[in-house]
Batch of 2 targets.
Target 1
Amino acid sequence: MLKAALPVVALVVLGTGCSSQGQDDQRLTERRENFCTQLGGWQKARNAAEADTPDPDEYDEVGAAAQDVLLAMRPLRDEPVGQGRTLGEATTAATENSDSEAEGLAVQYCGEVGFETLTR
């Protein structure tokens, strides 16, 4: 009886592991998509504010969009983006310090994970 039950238990354990891995992959993909969507939204708000004459309301929108990007980045902050930087470092430098090189790294990250069309 024990010999017959062992393969069944092994299949249940393996099946559970695959299901969990699939959910983790889906969650990671959703987080990446959300980050890239928020990054693109921030870029759009920033570019609109730069093109227009200064309006205090627009700058508030840019700041709010930057906060959305930073919140979306948090679960992904340790992912590498190149040049020895993490996504957290690059995103913070881009949104808070107008670092165009860091912004480029974040945009490149979005391209590498399949969401290049969400950024500018």
Target 2
Amino acid sequence: MHWTKPLGLLGVAVLAVLTVGALVAFVTQTLTGDAVTASIASIALLVVAIAGLAHVGGRSKRWRQNPYW
């Protein structure tokens, strides 16, 4: 076994822990405070905008003509 394989696993584990921690902090900060409704509405609009842009980009003729897809 090459010595970098355990380091790669450690890197992925650290990244997963940091991601979960950031998600927990984001949720706790968003759902507590004075502007909970505004925060949820902003997040919902952001999700809709990203989904819409992904849909428009996925349906483009140039993307469908790419031989790799």
